[in-house]
Amino acid sequence: RLASEGVRFTNYYCTNPICMPNRATLLTGLYPNVHGVRSNGINLPEDIPTITKTLRKRGWHTAAIGKIHHQFWLGPFKQKTKSAESLFSWAVDKGKKDPVGKNFPLPYYGYDDVEVISGNGTVCAGHYTEWLEERAPKIAEEMKKRVQNYDNLFSLYCDGIPEDLYNTTYVQERTIAFLERYAKGDYGDKPFYLHCSFPDPHYPLYPPKRFRDMYKPEDIELPASFQDAKNLYRHKYLGYHLKNPP
């Protein structure tokens, strides 16, 4: 229904293959070389005009639920710049020094309400972790430990999480809760803008069992080039690392 009654972008092209630059472009309408987020790890300037700031000024209620990624996620490295989406800060700091948890800075790039997920798959932090703590404290503690090793974000598989506790369920539940509040009139007569963003599918690849079982590895036809080792060695990036293993 959303697709049939709304707008679908079926011929969309991006100017940068990386996540953060494109998210910044969608929010600002600017090219990466203009808004400054040329790669992952660069915070979007907080004073830059965004569609959400414009709508908010015109009386809209704005909200973001799920993955936002307008600020860096990196771990416990010395940074002059703070991040409201830092994995390590959400897992360890909990808002004591950094702008996370109760110190989350609102409005955030023009969003009145934010329920953020930093990370992907079974390696996540943010308000999602707080939701998880209420439902499965042990799983929440394991996830906090997991996010402190940044390599886990790029692993092929991590420990599984039940479907009813997965990040997709969180985004779904919190999005429906927002829409129900709006329908009840909690935001008055204001129109609303809602950014609903599911982190997955994304590394680390470990979806709930129901979805893993839908596809059997032996049924997937691999391209002829998959086992072509000589061709891999000719690849500029992969070839170098194959010849110079860590």
Describe the structure.
With 246 residues, this protein is of the alpha/beta class. The protein is 36% helix and 10% strand. The chain has a four-stranded mixed beta sheet with strand order 3-2-1-4, sandwiched between helices. β1, α5 and β2 form a beta-alpha-beta unit. α5 packs across α7. The model has no long low-confidence stretch (mean pLDDT 90). One of its GO terms (molecular function) is sulfuric ester hydrolase activity. InterPro entries: Alkaline_phosphatase_core_sf, Sulfatase_N.
Biggest β-sheet strands, sense, barrel: 4 strands, mixed
Which runs of at least 5 residues are low in confidence (pLDDT < 50)?
none
Head-to-tail CA distance between termini: 50 Å
Helix tally? Answer: 11
β-sheet strand percentage: 5-15%
What is the strand tally? 4
| Percentage of residues assigned to helices | 25-40%
Q: Element order, helices and strands?
A: HHHHEHEEHHHEHHH
**Number of self-contained structural domains:** 2
Looking at the structure, what is the overall shape?
Answer: globular
Strand order across the largest sheet: 3-2-1-4
Q: Can you give the mean pLDDT?
A: 90
Helix/strand structural class: alpha/beta
Based on CA atoms alone, the radius of gyration comes out at: 20 Å
Pfam families: Sulfatase
Keywords: Hydrolase, Metal-binding
GO molecular function, one term: metal ion binding
Domain Sulfatase N-terminal: 1-216
